[in-house]
Structure formats: structure tokens, C-alpha cells
Design a protein that fits this description.
The chain is an alpha+beta fold. The protein contains 16 helices and 18 strands. The strands form 4 sheets. The protein has a 7-stranded antiparallel β-sheet with strand order 15-12-14-13-17-18-16, with helices on both faces. A hairpin with a 4-residue loop joins β5 and β6. α13 packs antiparallel against α14. It is globular. Bound molecules: lactic acid and zinc ion.
Length: 474
């Protein structure tokens, strides 16, 4: 601890104990640098509280010192939402990682914000329950982070986004007060529902410390297939058909355009065979879950056979073992090998009406190739949710101007279909200049007014979302 930060460090140590305060130069990278390595920072202190009361006391200290506080979790959000401010406090809730109750009658899990998503999933499963939120970053994302970003992932189609799984919430507000509604209720219409303001607010309105999450009965069967379709329209037809013919059991429908499929399976050839040949315009990874051990596999196979006979799909492979299931999912999720040659790239997670997706892809491709004729793009995403991911590379280093030009090309196409610049990853730092492309002036003014009520000193995760919004009305 040095110079003017010393009183702050002493005050923080008085709250959590000196052993849980780390000063600037000693703070490890995983608290300062996000997964894209684009956002690094130099926080003055890393603080690791053990209880909600300690979080509240830390925030009171931050407020007294007018010092920014950012919760640092898995750092896998990709838009810089959880990168601390230079000179600010990096607040890690990793010591608050307990699951304190699993209630199998109410079907709820009470959990602290620092618990990893995967640990929470496994704890539910051990008790015969399902915590349905699932995403590639399950091993790094913390519960507080997936609440803070209202995470989505690959089962939204059936069970919704994080917002739909939060029954109760506890949070620390910017003045260090604790606000709590740790209830087990789905239905609660007693006035304004503040928890929904905090969910998805990226730590700018309050710090989530605990939650009561909704669980579902654990399905006992699971069917996974990769199919190929002649075009996007047929794919959506297949999606809608399966929603009915699988009697509500369809839980994932992940689309991969041919270029994505080719690139990923090619890169993965040393570790796993390509499950379906190249040459089809579009591929979908399909998963269903259910409870009829005798009938579900047969129902799934029958449904796919019918689609094949009708040429709605051109090819299909069904996983016959857990290993095969994992190999199919790896095509969609094990992206590191495939995207490595695309570095540096810019990634997007945009959203729109499902019917607008083909027009968006066409316009985005056109806009990008007009700006950068040699650019390469791959598209994939959560089709049932109207949520597309795109990765774009120009095959050369990208400076801020190039990034801005690419963002403009993509978000212009988003605006053309009245879509959203972020479906699930949030705004953070990287999307902030474009928030006004997706939100009207009135909406931004309301958001700004809410921020003023919740955090008048702007100490909660400043520089993200609203604060960095280029089009923010004065
Ligand atoms: C996914 C992450 C990038 O869907 O949202 O793979
Ligand atoms: Zn996604």
C-alpha cells in the first residue's frame, strides 16, 4: 500500500482482514484481465469479503472514498463488463461460494454469488434436480455474474434466461445497505419488482450477493443429434415441428452456418471425426430431455426420420453414447481450435425476430465485405431465441478504427431488422458506444434516471453500460 491509497487499504483491511486485501501490484491477472485480453486494468485493491455484511461494509468504505467498485467474477463475459476501474476496488466474491439450501419441495436452490455455475449445476443434479441455465463458460462463470448479465446460453428455448430462474435476490446497494427478498416464490406482484432491475444491470445498480434459484425436476433421458438442412427456413420449420412432435421436450436447437461448421470440424479433426459431411448450407445441434426411459429415444428417432423422409432435413446423426453426445456438443462449444487462426477477431451476440435472421446475415455479410473485402465471418447461435453469434476477422491486426467500422457494419444490419446489439453478453465497455442504436432517447433517459437513484455517486462499475454510452442524452 502506498501514498494516497493507504487510508483506503487500511479501511478495507479493517473490514475483511488484511489477508483478504491485495494491493495493486500483487493482484493476479485473472482479476484484472478479461478473457478477450482486450481489457486489462490496474485496480488499487482486490478485496475478498466472506459475507454479505462484509460486502456492505466494503461498499460503505468505497462510498466514503468515492472509489469505484467492480465485482470480478469469471471474466468470461467477453464485453468487458467485469473489468475493474484503474485505481478502483476489484471485489471478488469467490469466498462467498456456498450453496446453503436445496429445497426439493419448493424446487429452489439458495446460493451465494461467488459459486461457479457448474458447481451449482452439479449440486442440483446430485439431488435429482436441474438448474437449467447452461453455457460454454459454465466452469468459470459465477452465479452473481450470470445474474448480473442475465445470461442465456443453450437451453433458453425451453427454460428461459437467468431472469426466469431467479426467485429471490439479495444485493448490496451503492450506499452499503443490504436489500433482500430471498423468497421461494414464482409469483409476486406486490408492487415494483426491483430484482428485475438488478438482473442484467452488469453491477451498475447493486451488487448481487445471494439468490434463490428455481430448479426443475431432473430429466432422466436425453437425446442429442446433429442434423443438416437445405436452408434457414427449413431449419426453423424443423424447430417448430420438433417443439410439438417431441411433446415439449426440445431443450436445445443450436444453429451453425456451413462456414462455422467447416472451420470448427476441420480444426478439430486431430481430436475427433467430423460427425456429418461438409456441403450442407446449415447444421443444427438438437437436444431433447424427458422422463420416458422406454419411449423417448424412439420418439426422437421417429421425429427425425419423418423430417428426413420429408426432406426437411438432408442428413442426421444421433449420439448413441455419452461420449458421442459430448463429441457432438464439442463441435458447437469447443471453439478454441477453430477460432485460433481467426485471431484477432471481433465477436457479436445480436438478437432479432427469428424471421429476420436470414436478412440480417445477408446484410451483415454485405456490409462487412464492402468495408473489408478480405474479411472472414462465421455465424452460429441459438436459433429458437433469435440470437446469433458472429465472429469477424479481417486477417490483420485491428485498431480502434477498424473495430468501430466492423461494429458499425454489424450493428447497422441489426438496426435494419429492429434488433438488439446484445442478446446475452451485455453492453460492458465494448458495446457501450452503440447502446443508442438499440435504445431510444427516452429509454436511455429512463435508464439514466434509474442509475441516478441507485448510484448517485457512480461508484458501482463505472465506465460500463450507461457511463460509456456514446449516444447518451445530456
Ligand atoms: C455461446 C456464447 C458465446 O453461445 O454465448 O457460445
Ligand atoms: Zn451464446
Amino acid at each position: 500500500m502506498h501514498g494516497e491509497t493507504q487510508p483506503l487499504g487500511i479501511a478495507l483491511a479493517a473490514v475483511v482482514g488484511a489477508g483478504h486485501v491485495t494491493a495493486a501490484l500483487d493482484i493476479g491477472e485473472r482479476y484484472r484481465v478479461d478473457v478477450t485480453r482486450k481489457y486489462a486494468s490496474r485496480p488499487a485493491f482486490l478485496v475478498r469479503p466472506a459475507t454479505t455484511d462484509e460486502v456492505a461494509a466494503v461498499v460503505r468504505v468505497a462510498s466514503a472514498h468515492r472509489t469505484p467498485v467492480t465485482v470480478v467474477g469469471g471474466q468470461t463475459g467477453t464485453v468487458g463488463s467485469a473489468v475493474p476501474s484503474d485505481g478502483g476496488i476489484a471485489l471478488s466474491l469467490e469466498r462467498m461460494n456456498r450453496i446453503t439450501e436445496i429445497d426439493l419441495l419448493s424446487m429452489t436452490m439458495t446460493v451465494e454469488a461467488g459459486c461457479l455455475l457448474q458447481i451449482a449445476q452439479e449440486a442440483a443434479e446430485d439431488k435429482g434436480a436441474l438448474l437449467p441455465l447452461d453455457l460454454g463458460a459454465r466452469g468459470s462463470a459465477m452465479i452473481g455474474g450470470v445474474i448480473g448479465t442475465n445470461a442465456g446460453g443453450n437451453r433458453v428455448l425451453r427454460w428461459g434466461m437467468m431472469r426466469d430462474m431467479v426467485f429471490g435476490l439479495e444485493a448490496v446497494l451503492a450506499d452499503g445497505t443490504v436489500i433482500s427478498s430471498m423468497t421461494k416464490m414464482l409469483k409476486d406482484n406486490a408492487g415494483y419488482n426491483w430484482k428485475h432491475l438488478l438482473i442484467g444491470s452488469e453491477g451498475t445498480l447493486g451488487i448481487v450477493t445471494r439468490a434463490v434459484l428455481r430448479l426443475r425436476p431432473l430429466p432422466s433421458t436425453r437425446q442429442t443429434a446433429l442434423v443438416a438442412a437445405p436452408n434457414f427456413g427449413k431449419c426453423i420449420e424443423v424447430l417448430r415441428r420438433l417443439e410439438i412432435t417431441l411433446s415439449g421436450r426440445l431443450s436445445s436447437f443450436e444453429l451453425m452456418w456451413e462456414d462455422f461448421y467447416e472451420r470448427m470440424t476441420e480444426a478439430q479433426l486431430p481430436v475427433r471425426p467430423r460427425p456429418l459431411p461438409l456441403g450442407y448450407p446449415i447444421y443444427a445441434l438438437i437436444e431433447a430431455m424427458g422422463g420416458d426411459v422406454e419411449g423417448d429415444d424412439a420418439q426422437f428417432e421417429r421425429a427425425l426420420n419423418t423430417l428426413l423422409e420429408e426432406s426437411a432435413i438432408q442428413d442426421a446423426v444421433i449420439a448413441r453414447s455419452e461420449r458421442e453426445r459430448q463429441a457432438l456438443w464439442a463441435v458447437r462449444e469447443d471453439l478454441q481450435l477453430g477460432i485460433a487462426p481467426m485471431r484477432p477477431f471481433r465477436s457479436y451476440d445480436v438478437s432479432m425476430g427469428v424471421s429476420d435472421m436470414p436478412a440480417f446475415v445477408d446484410t451483415a455479410r454485405k456490409n462487412v465485405s464492402v468495408a473489408y473485402p478480405n474479411a472472414q465471418m462465421i455465424f452460429y447461435g441459438h436459433a429458437g431465441d433469435g440470437n446469433l453469434h458472429a465472429l469477424v476477422t479481417i486477417g490483420a491486426p485491428m485498431d480502434a478504427d477498424v473495430e468501430m467500422r466492423l461494429d458499425t457494419s454489424i450493428f447497422d444490419a441489426v438496426r435494419g431488422v429492429n434488433g438488439s446489439i446484445s442478446a446475452e453478453h451485455g453492453i460492458g465497455i465494448s458495446r457501450a458506444p452503440f447502446l443508442s442504436w438499440t435504445r431510444s432517447k427516452r429509454e436511455l433517459e429512463l435508464m439514466q434516471a434509474l442509475k441516478q437513484v441507485f448510484d448517485p455517486q457512480h461508484i458501482l462499475n463505472p465506465g460500463k453500460l450507461m457511463d460509456a454510452c456514446g449516444g447518451l442524452p445530456k
